[in-house]
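Archive entry. Fields below.
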Amino acid sequence: MTDINTQEIQRLYEKLNKEAEDGGYHLNPDVEFTKQLVESLIINQQRYGYPACPCRLASGKKEEDLDIICPCDYRDADILEYGACYCGLYVSEKVLKGERKLQSIPERRPPKEKRSESVTQKIQTGLPYPVYRCKVCGYLCARESPPEVCPICKAKKERFERFM
Amino acid sequence: MTDINTQEIQRLYEKLNKEAEDGGYHLNPDVEFTKQLVESLIINQQRYGYPACPCRLASGKKEEDLDIICPCDYRDADILEYGACYCGLYVSEKVLKGERKLQSIPERRPPKEKRSESVTQKIQTGLPYPVYRCKVCGYLCARESPPEVCPICKAKKERFERFM
Amino acid sequence: MTDINTQEIQRLYEKLNKEAEDGGYHLNPDVEFTKQLVESLIINQQRYGYPACPCRLASGKKEEDLDIICPCDYRDADILEYGACYCGLYVSEKVLKGERKLQSIPERRPPKEKRSESVTQKIQTGLPYPVYRCKVCGYLCARESPPEVCPICKAKKERFERFM
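PREDICTED_STRUCTURE:
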């Protein structure tokens, strides 16, 4: 690894860490491990032109890989269920604090033929995702379940209610 | 007060202050007073397992106290009407700048038997809260009235419009 | 320019820069030029009591100028179409990186008689703006098109989908 690479990795690591903390997420506290993932993201950025998930096989066609550009569409559901995203780059607060151990995480990404299911179709039978509301600040988001922490006021998951 | 406590208070004070400013809120500029409240939050965290409001009597059952975990569900309405939350921990920009004096703040929390009124019931007769939209960045939130400052783009309250 | 003014400009410049970066926006990287705009904002703040757009003629009546208080209601649409807001204070990522040149930007603000068109009227025939959802974190916003970057999780525009 050249000096420039080390600097680049450090820079991206710090940027991702700040963005994560500001938004109520956490990078894996194992810095050595995390920096390896960050390096893979830089390599994928150079190879494909976008930072595809380091732990999945990218097709190289951006429109087919949109859902696995890091952070992937499956991150939040995996953090909720397993305490970490598929790669282990992002972890839950419990894992961060050592109150929960990481286990292996099954692949949540649907097979290719099911991925294209249009949100527009789902809308015809109601909203494609439930909308949750932070009772503290009124923040709204549409997800399978509320975020671990409100990205606006940092209230915890249990302060969210179903809104629509 | 031990040295460790002072450090702990300072740490939580700085964390809450950063989170407040990032989200368009403000801690009370009377640092001495504010740190006393922060200390009470730490004590409540140790006693109950969650940082119940320092100025209210917690039941000790988390599910009954959710609405008064700090920041409480009533903070934003009190800041809007009285310039500060019930405790005086969070204040409006006018109070911060000394353009408005603090007065005593009546208890907004409903009596226990009215607290459980289900949002789901309210939904059946339309949305439980109006949705406001920041005209500058499109941020949406569901609250009795818009926030003092848009947490995303920092546009002021008067730049919000009723959206739903 | 007095010393105090230079300090004031520097302070506001830094504040706006931090707020922009935190929310996925960027100030014009030509710092000299940008600070002139920041100075004009301070002058307008003193003259009118609010930071009206430096490149437009304010009426001096706040309720008539709400849409051109900086950041103006037209910023995001101009950044999307032209790579910068009308003044050139805020620029797109491409412009920031030198991958796109700035051109002159036509005035998007409607003539006065069309400005007052009530959002309430638009609501009667459906929502006044489409609602977009970040597929990564579930952030919702109501705008003509998605933001360049999700202000919560920093996912890019192409990760947004139409939600309502």
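CURATOR_NOTE: Residues 4 and 43 of chain B are 13 Å apart (CA to CA).
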